[in-house]
Amino acid sequence: MDTTKTIWLPPQSSTISPQIDNLFDFILWASTVLFIIVTFATIYFAIRYRRKGDVAKTTPYVENLGLEITWTVIPFILLMIIFVWGFKDYLRFHIIPAHAMEVKVTGQKWFWSYGYLDGPTTVGEMIVPVNKPIKLLMSSQDVIHSFFVPEFRVKMDVLPNRYTVTWFEAVHIGEFQVYCTEFCGKGHSEMLGKVKVLPQEEFDKWLEASSGPQEGETMVDYGARLFVKNACVTCHSVDGSKNVGPTFLGLFGRREVMASGETITVDENYLRESMLSPMAKVVTGYDPVMPTFQGILKNVDVDGLIAYIKSLEQK
Ligand code: CUA
Q1: SS3 of residue 267 by DSSP
Q2: Exposed / middle / buried, residue 10 (Cβ in 10 Å: 0-12, 13-18, 19+)
């Protein structure tokens, strides 16, 4: 299989890519040939039959049934070829192999997260084994997003309150760029991710090792790792500086005024609630923009993050 990048298209890194590309090439070259024929005919006729002198009348109109049938039948055949070919590829995209591994894809402003049936939930990076069909069960927490991996030729809208489904089978090991291709607000262009394709053995090892704290890791270390992994770091500082959300430095035990006017003391239950239902109590002066981590953070993850936040005492 061709893995080199060309000026036209990215490498073909999934089983379906060559089929998609063949159809694309057919349409591209058929359109190119038609474009050349039409353009040159137009130029030729414009020159050949241009107005010469004072002739007011055009030549008499003569019907030509043969010609009319020809220019109807040829485009009809051409379009039917594209329709049948395209419909076959469409079915390939939508019929998911029975032995496919399922990954739950969630889009929200502005990141992707991935849930595994017997495994962890990852943020930003989908990890899959090579040469295995992967079924993507997709939904959105907020607005419409669209999941696109150019190298796999896979693209599907991700909607709130509904599942959409597609699949791919990666044929190359490596990292592949994920884009959001539906304008979804301020952070749309930064709603990027990666698909990391591993050999089956490495994938199995990763799946086994990726839940809960690692051996020899304290809850605080585990929380610190989740803090980066789940992108909390994008909006919360740990050095006291104000960001999109309140800083985590000295947060535990602090008295905060809520947007509702109520004053609360930050304790374990408040932190837990703020991760899972962030809109419940928003600190005054901040926009209610935090996404929910319900379904992403497991209990042990929430424990780890709370331990980490507790460790960030104001000196
Ligand atoms: Cu999500 Cu654009």
Answers
A1: coil
A2: middle
59-77 pLDDT per residue, tens: 777 888 999 999 999 999 9
Measured in angstroms, how far is the CA atom of residue 186 from the centroid of ligand 1? 9
Q: Which atom of ligand 1 is nearest to the CA of 144?
A: 1
* Report field, pTM of the whole predicted structure over 0.70: no
Tokens of 312: 């960030």
Whether the bond into 110 is cis, omega within 30 of 0: yes
Atom of ligand 1 nearest to the CA of 189: 2
What ligand 1 atom has the least distance to the C-alpha of 180? 2
Scanning the structure block, which residue is given the tokens 């050349």? 36
If you measure from the C-alpha of residue 139 to the centroid of ligand 1, how many angstroms do you get, rounded to a whole number? 12
Angle at 178 between CA 173 and CA 180, to 5 degrees: 165
pLDDT, tens digit, for every residue of 193-221? 999 999 999 998 888 777 677 777 788 88
Give the residue whose CA is nearest to atom 1 of ligand 1: 145
Q: How far apart are CA 171 and CA 156, in angstroms?
A: 20
